[in-house]
Amino acid sequence: MGTLIVLIVFALFLTAILTGGYNKTFLERVKNSKVWDWLTTVDHKKIGILYFLSGFFFFLVGGIEALFMRLQLVVPHNDLFVGDTFNELLTMHGTTMIFMAAMPMIFGLMNAVVPLQIGARDVAFPFVNALGFWLFFAGGLLMNLSWIFGGAPDAGWTSYTSLALNNYSPGPGVDFYVLGLQIAGIGTLIGGLNFMATIINLRAPGMTFLRMPMFTWTSFVTSTIILFAFPPLTVALLLLMFDRLFGSHFFDYTMGGSAVIWEHLFWIFGHPEVYIVILPAFGVMSEVISTFSRKRLFGYTSMVFATVLIAFLSFMVWVHHMFTVGLGPVSNSIFAVATMAIAVPTGIKVFNWLFTMWGGEIRFTTAMLFAIGFIPTFVMGGMTGVMLAAPPADFQYQDSYFVVAHFHYVLVGGTVMGLFAGAYYWWPKMFGKMLNETIGKIHFWTFLIGFHLTFFPQHFLGLFGMPRRVFTYQPGMGLDSLNLISTIGVVGMAIGTIAFLYNIYWSFKKAAPAPADPWDGRTLEWAISSPPPVYNFAQLPLVRGYDAWWMEKQAGNKSLPPAEPLGSIHMPSSSFIPILMALGFFIAGFGFIFRGDFVGAIIGLVLVIVCLFLRSFDRDHGYHIEPDEIEETNKGVQA
Amino acid sequence: MVSRQRMWRVLPVFALLALALSGCSNSKVEMNVLDPHGSAGEKQLDLINWSFILMLAVFAVVTTIYIYVLIRYRKRKGIDRMPEQVHGNTVLEIVWTVIPIILLAILAVPTVSTTFDLSEKPKTKDAIRVVVTGHQYWWEFEYPDLGIKTAQELHIPVGRKVDLEIHGKDVLHSFWVPSLQGKTDVVPGRVNHMTLDADKPGVYQGKCAELCGAGHALMDFKVIASNDADFNKWVAEMKAPPAPVTTASEKKGEQLFQQNCMGCHAGINPNVQGPDLNKFGTRTTIAGVLPHDEQHLKQWLHNPQAVKPGALMPKINYLQPDEIQALTDYLMSRK
Amino acid sequence: MATHTEASRSPHMPNHLETATFEGRNKVLGFWLFLGAETVLFACLFGTYLALRHQTMGGPSGHELFDLKLVGLATAFLLTSSLTSVLAILAMNQLKKKVMMFWLAVTVLLGLAFLILEINEFIHYVHEGHTFTSSAFGSSFYALVGTHGAHVTFGIIWISTLMLQAAGRGITEEMAPKLFVASLYWHFIDVVWVFIFTLVYLLGKVG
């Protein structure tokens, strides 16, 4: 059946190309349509919007999955979603939130902001940027289609073997996990690589490394972590795919394999992953707190140092996820101390934020509220993090609701709050419209209260003996009322999210155009119009210090000093190859999942290879925007 | 010294909250990390409290500065003040780097020593050796020195160290008794060790803590701690020859058992294996989760997957009611 | 010409055509980063192999299987091809198209020779009962050496494609970075092979 679907899709696709080719006006219409523009764009601002909105869509999907789980757990012995169905929900919730919601939304902000903050016209590889997005989208779509085609993965987002092997997960669920993540993972990897190259090579004149805004710094460090942490995931998924589809024995102990190898590979990736999603949130907080305190970021250099140190240490601590595996007290002790060490640079950051506000003039905008709500919430997550680092105590916390509480404090209290803060802060720059501050405040308060109501009791659920990933519990063991409270809290988070959805609607329908610098900003992106012109800066700016735009404003300048004369600007052309290539991967993924003779897989991979050749032989050098054209639309930088 | 250590565990806010929140629990089965009944659990709770107090101190400092800053430096209406653009403060920055390092060092010392302490195998000669095997979704307990094999209920004597040797056959599980000792993973292809003991007689709830499939949530077991005399009585009971099959119904049940259940429940086929049922009548639960009575046994036999999703036991729904009655009678008489 | 002043200002030695343009510099930097990711990828495969290499499950061990003479020959082919790819890039920077094409062709041929030897070796192993599915050792061996082989195959196709392009377009500022990163890639798979030779074959022979 799978082969058939794949063939049909492919045939439709070919027809579309061919008929389009025969009918020139049709092709013309397609090429001028807005949809085609968005599908083929290589503009970092548009890709940022695509990333952010599709990430938010998956955030809603993952949120609904979480809601279902809390509904099942509202009373003991509930029978709404039991057994494998519940396991599917918890697996998809975790995987969706990490890979399909948090990371894309982060990439969304990075795309929208980083090139502007370093004074660049685009990223180093616009084509790769588009490809990265479409691969993530294809992977996310593939994985979520599992709900329709034979069942979602149910072995947890960690997908531990042997449970994830054929013997114990015979359906296609885990195949969807393996292939979906593999495709999305390649997209993320090249995205990270792109941002590293962008930040190294495309900084405007004068924008030295130690003048880069904090968000750019954290994006840079996150990209570095992505570059080195995703290959272990690639390998782990590859080996799991071999075990499931091609009969190898990496993780099957009856044939000499070892389930512990999966755990190592997964967590060598998995722990740095935590910092991949939290560091950009730190960056957002630094920008927001500094802007709305009307003060320079306190201890900028130590912030940079702390970020780099966290990234370095993140690769040294993965075994703390495996304290109970039985690797012995020596290994457990070493990794325990390494883990505790991470608290030091993180603490430096927290104190720097507090002292940025100290002596400042704090404006309680929605973005700032999220940043302010973030500090104590994240500190609580950090506290339990240090507590978890002690192996003997971890023997009790491990795989219990205490851990669930801990990582939601860090991921929701850290990453999600950071993303919301970033959304409110940069929304005008991304869309040219403001978000509503009143709705924003409703969003913040309901979300924050709901969040604490949901997750604070879970610390105690864990200590009272409730393991994570269970679909039910026994009554009368001290778990009933806490579970009830936890489910009630979800209502608050749901209302908050709906408020945000309404706010998006409001901004598109009712909001007035946003000014270039609505917040009295400090960094380069606020020096150009909202949204910026397609080339960002008519003339590349000359950067004369940290908080460059703030410095110029203080000196009484109305615009940034240019570093080059007004001239013709080279722009990359749009390309349909990224989406076509992602389609190839998507088809190949389906082909592998439906096994059989792998016809679909071969067709998909052939399409990918065809795209590679198309790209290699493509001699499109882009186009130029001439100075008179710039003058006409010039709302941004003037000399 | 002892009383001071006790103080440790009572004082912290953590424990107070725990009492307040779990006070309503009147169940006799214990499952609470904050109220341990074994030496390992107590050491772990000491470390939990110690780390919690240290962290609470940090949290207090952060919150104080946080609240002060938010109130003192909020923007006031009508005042347009330009804050001084401070770059940083070297002394302050060194302070909040060094103090956390000291705090963490203070935490690291007991952490490392407890880690090594808990990993030691019992030195005393009277330790009981138990081989634990995790299966989807039940626990097998074998006492190699006593020649006993049982399931779902781990009987231990109070005050004696129990040396657990943990094996796995199918997927990962994790062995956890919150009131006595933390987790040790069940890893197929590896043997793990864990020591536990109980300081007072009681029933302690055990859980599987690693996602192991559809029935993971119900992979429960119990640790039954009793004093030496009761424990020895239990051992003797377990080693006694099986109770004679007396009534006609039991005899019929025995026959049905041999026809329908022996394949898995007598260890003939090592790949398809269910719990040993020789002393089934002495257990306190069915399948680790249901009360031990005839009605629930019938419920389990009729549709095991309705009780425990993913259970590997086939449905025994093809027997006549009288046959089920006979099978139930037989099983309940296995003491 | 702007490109000339760019080239002389570049931190690299002058006459490096591959970094003469802005796009070229991006490409070279991006490719180095990509090789960093590839290094981690191979490190994971090496780790898996080293952890599983004794799990033969009664099948033949590395000690029984490996024939150092043939593997040595394959190594010689691949290491030589690294040298010839350097010669090709030198020729490229001197704008000697014919010389460059010659050395690229030699590189591809040596790569092909290596690949034929490797396939031959795998066929031999399968006959000995050492397959991808025979044991964890087999799985991890083929995953590691096979991934390297796939990289060599990709490299051969890649360099051949670039030769095709260069034949038509000549050595341009656009072609130069492409050729340069392809040769970087080729060196990288060479270095990986050195590790495979040491950690798989030599270590396998020692025990």
Automatic annotation (TrEMBL), chain A:
It is a multi-pass membrane protein. The chain crosses the membrane at residues 6-27, 48-69, 89-114, 126-149, 176-202, 214-242, 265-285, 297-321, 333-355, 367-389, 401-427, 439-461, 481-502, 576-594, 600-617. It catalyses: 4 Fe(II)-[cytochrome c] + O2 + 8 H(+)(in) = 4 Fe(III)-[cytochrome c] + 2 H2O + 4 H(+)(out). It comes from the Bacteria. It is found in: Cell membrane. Coiled coil: none annotated. Residues 30-544 form the Cytochrome oxidase subunit I profile domain. Keywords: Cell membrane, Copper, Electron transport, Heme, Iron, Membrane, Metal-binding, Respiratory chain, Translocase, Transmembrane, Transmembrane helix, Transport. Pathway: Energy metabolism; oxidative phosphorylation. InterPro entries: Cyt_c_oxase-like_su1_dom (IPR023616), Cyt_c_oxase-like_su1_sf (IPR036927), Cyt_C_Oxase_1 (IPR000883), Cyt_c_Oxase_su1_BS (IPR023615), Cyt_c_oxidase_su1_bac (IPR014241). One of its GO terms (biological process) is oxidative phosphorylation. GO terms for molecular function: cytochrome-c oxidase activity; heme binding; metal ion binding. Its EC number is 7.1.1.9. GO terms for cellular component: plasma membrane. Cytochrome c oxidase is the component of the respiratory chain that catalyzes the reduction of oxygen to water. Subunits 1-3 form the functional core of the enzyme complex. CO I is the catalytic subunit of the enzyme. Electrons originating in cytochrome c are transferred via the copper A center of subunit 2 and heme A of subunit 1 to the bimetallic center formed by heme A3 and copper B. Belongs to the heme-copper respiratory oxidase family. This is Cytochrome c oxidase subunit 1. It comes from Thermoactinomyces daqus.
TrEMBL record, chain C:
The keyword Transcription regulation does not apply. One of its GO terms (molecular function) is cytochrome-c oxidase activity. It is found in: Cell membrane. It comes from the Bacteria. The keyword Kinase does not apply. It is a multi-pass membrane protein. CDD domains: Ubiquinol_oxidase_III. GO terms for cellular component: plasma membrane. The chain crosses the membrane at residues 29-50, 70-92, 99-119, 139-164, 184-204. This is Cytochrome (Ubi)quinol oxidase subunit III. Belongs to the cytochrome c oxidase subunit 3 family. Residues 29-205 form the Heme-copper oxidase subunit III family profile domain. Pfam families: COX3. InterPro entries: Cyt_c/ubiquinol_Oxase_su3 (IPR024791), Cyt_c_oxidase-like_su3 (IPR000298), Cyt_c_oxidase_su3-like_sf (IPR035973), Cyt_c_oxidase_su3_a-hlx (IPR013833), Ubiquinol_oxase_su3_dom (IPR033946). Keywords: Cell membrane, Membrane, Transmembrane, Transmembrane helix. One of its GO terms (biological process) is aerobic electron transport chain. It comes from Thermoactinomyces daqus.
